[in-house]
Amino acid sequence: MYNASTRNVQRKGREIMYGTIKHLLILLIIFILCVSLAACKKLGVTENAEIDYGNSNKFSEDEIESAVDIAMDHFRDNFQNCELIKIWYDEEVSDTMVYSYLTYGHGAFGHGISKVKSENVIGLLFDFYVEPRGAKPYFEPDTMYCGWNMILIKDSKTDKWAFRDGYGG
Questions:
Q1: 107 and 31: one domain?
Q2: What global pTM score does this model have?
């Protein structure tokens, strides 16, 4: 038979057991939150970027605007902890970039498109800032990078642009 002393011991045992489980659950939740926050990367910031569409005899305004939009999406997704300061199109510089891309870069090898034509390749330039916490493993924290390049291509004049290459200035 149970007496008051036995019931008190059992009650204390249950309280200890439930208290331990409660503490373990709280620790587990805290651990999951910490891991989730550590895994989150801050996307590249593009909202305040200065945009210069330049003048072109080669591309329409709409083509340049859509190329800039794709480039900004690429920046947002791939330049964590960085802020886009300026993005611009300069036809003379772009022509040089396109020539290099088609002659020596990925464009010389087709890069998924049978033969890339120069009229379907655009080069954009951009400046960006790396936040103090850095964007590992590539960029130095709290640093401004200027004159970086992005190459975008499309299959034909009417297709959408796609990011293909990019490198430092």
A1: no
A2: 0.72
Task: Tell me: do 30 and 85 sit in the same domain.
Answer: no
Q: Residue 76: how many CB atoms within 10 A of its CB?
A: 16
CA–CA gap between residue 136 and residue 139 (Å, rounded): 6
Residue 123 banded pLDDT, cuts 50, 70, 90: very high
Largest CA distance in the chain: 99
Beta-carbon neighbour count of residue 168 at 10 Å?
Answer: 10
- pLDDT tens string 21-35: 665 555 556 655 544
Structure confidence by residue, pLDDT tens digits, 79-116: 999 999 999 999 999 999 999 988 887 766 665 545 78
Residue 45 forms part of a structural domain: no
Residue 96 structure tokens: 């040089």
Here the tokens at position 30 are: 């805290």
**82-88 sheet: strands from edge to edge:** 50-52, 82-88, 121-130, 143-153, 162-167
Name the DSSP class of 62. H
Q: Which of 114, 80, 97 is nearest to 149 (CA)?
A: 97
- The strand pairing partners of 130, in sequence order, are 82, 143
Q: How many domains does the chain have?
A: 2
The whole domain housing 94 covers 50-167
